[in-house]
Amino acid sequence: MTDTVPTGERRQLTPPVNETGVLGWMRRNLFSNWGNGITTVVLFVAMAWLLGWFLNWALFTATFTAPNGQACRGHGACWALIHEKYRYIFFGSFPYQQHWRPLLAVLAMLAMLLMSSDRRMWNGRLIVIWLVGSFVTFLLMFGVLSFPISLFLTIALICGVIGMTARAVIAAPVEINGWRALAAIGAVGLVLRMLGVMPAWALTIAPFDYVETGLWGGLPVTMILATYGLVFAFPYGILLALGRRSKLPLIKGLCVGFIELIRGVPLISLLIMASVMLPLFLPQGTSIDKFLRALVAVVLFAGAYIAEIIRGGLQSLPKGQFEAADAMALNYPQKTILIVLPQALRVVIPPLINTFIGFFKDTSLVLIIGIFDFLNTANQALVDPNWAGFPAEVYLFAAFVYFCFCFSMSRYSKYLEVELNKGTRR
Amino acid sequence: MASNSVIELKGVNKWYGQFHVLSDINLDVKEGEKIVVCGPSGSGKSTLIRCINRLEEHQQGDIVVHGVTLTNDVKNIEAIRREVGMVFQSFNLFPHLTILDNLTLAPIWVKKMPKKEAEEVAMGLLKRVRIPEQANKYPGQLSGGQQQRVAIARALAMHPKIMLFDEPTSALDPEMVKEVLDVMVELAKEGMTMICVTHEMGFARAVADRVIFMDRGEIVEQNEPEEFFAHPKNERTKTFLGQILHHG
């Protein structure tokens, strides 16, 4: 007997049962022959035993509350230590009664980061989110913020100059007079201020007690260093990468020299230089905040690495893209902003996020110059003689917190890749 | 003279290192003239048209486009590029932008045209190259022939006075060559000044006012298409035509 198949139609057969589903997958991948079968069983048993041991230690025999380390001995994990010390681990030496401030600051930063990770926010709103988020964060951390008038004037001058130059090449010269006026106000004001004609007005907002950066510690420090370090390093890295490809020998030389110099030394030595040597060169009496110095070192260091990654993206663009942009009379800034960077940055998302993750963890090197980031406050929690002898718990806890941050970044990189390449792949 | 020269090349020379790619090129293109440039690979024909909008720099001689002399002055270069559209062998559409954005980019940023107006112009051009329904797709989703038609529309969006075509059909599958050539023929009939580097001799016969044969960086022979194909004078031209016409 034969099946009669209608002409022009092919019968769709269902695949053999053994090849699909969970059973089919296991058959193919785990038990394809005797050797594989035995290996699978042995590994499964080993994994089950390890997991059982870990759960037993971490949950079933663990101590969750105890008056001191002594009460923990002889049992499983001593989570009581974390319970006792978590506030120090998270917030360091920040005044104890005020711990809600760094907590809210961390939440403000998380909200800011989450909001700006949404692609629909990538327009003017992003600037507003960051200005508000940063203001809230630093107001909570410092307690008192003071903006001298010269700061406003400098911002006016910088915005005006950027607006003048950028708008002249990019858009219609309609509002250019507005930018000119802004720059002029900034420049005149600064001169007057320097001559002493204008008094040293300052806008001071002081809702809380002032807490100096020396007392900051824990998670907010790690987050501030990593976030603002990378936020400033990113545009700086883009400029370095563009400069390195410049046809002007001076700019190219400076950029190459800087990148190679910074990449050639360890971050630690840069941090030590920033904290020990920099003050020697500054005039007597002036001092730059230690925290700010660390931040600058991170920016310089991360900038050099980011620059090299972005250069890779720039080089991956076909020459035809540059030629097409040239042929339609786009000038250099237009070509770079509209054609080159959007494509180059898409290509380098994975290595870029890789670097971001690396720097998030590298911030713990600031211990060298006496700043207590999250890992270092965790370390300090071990020093208490009452609670001596439980490093595994503390480091596991620290590792878990770091993992939450780094894994989110990694997933975000994946999302971003898919999101940005939507429709552009055939 | 009824019409004026829009492109003049006088004694143009160019070297890549020691290699003499363009040797003493003299060329005069009248308004509305259609010129086909052919020649063996490496003969300098692409380099020649790429010098006209300064994608390549010439080292000696003068190039005057629409009365503007090509120098190192960026102002001059940009003035010329605004008047000269170019279509590439490998399309060079911007893959991160939709078809519509590809077309409106230069009018908006270079000509400062309002977005709405630029989009109307772009849709008109897409209708002209017969793919208005693709406006919101990305270049990667289109076939080669469609991409090249978009590239032509993109160049036209700047309302150029002159169009340069650098082997526009060489990277296409054979069945897509015709759809691109049809668009080019239409454009030629509308009176656009065109210089095409191409091996499509059927196209040359149909629209060219003049066919130029280049070899080893020189213009070896130029003539009206009838005469050029029927009675080539130079030995090198004869050999070349023999080689390409054999295969049809």
Task: Describe the 3D structure.
The complex is a heterodimer of chains A (426) and B (248). By secondary structure, chain A is an all-alpha fold. Chain A contains 16 helices and four strands. Chain A has helices spanning 21-29, 34-60, 79-91, 100-117, 124-142, 149-170, 176-195, 219-244, 249-263, 267-281, 290-316, 319-327, 332-347, 349-362, 374-381, 391-420; strands at 145-148, 202-205, 217-218, 372-373. Chain A has a two-stranded antiparallel sheet. Chain A has a two-stranded parallel sheet with strand order 3-4. Chain A is globular. With 248 residues, chain B is α/β, with parallel strands linked by helices. Chain B is 39% helix and 25% strand. Chain B has nine helices and ten strands. Chain B has helices at 45-52, 74-83, 99-109, 115-128, 144-156, 174-189, 201-207, 225-230, 235-246, and strands at residues 5-16, 19-30, 34-38, 60-65, 68-69, 84-87, 162-166, 193-197, 210-215, 218-223. In chain B, the strands form two sheets. In chain B, strands 6-7-8-3-9-10 form a six-stranded mixed sheet, sandwiched between helices. In chain B, strands 2-1-4-5 form a four-stranded antiparallel sheet, with helices on one face. Chain B starts with a strand and ends with a helix. The interface between A and B is medium-sized, with 24 and 32 residues.
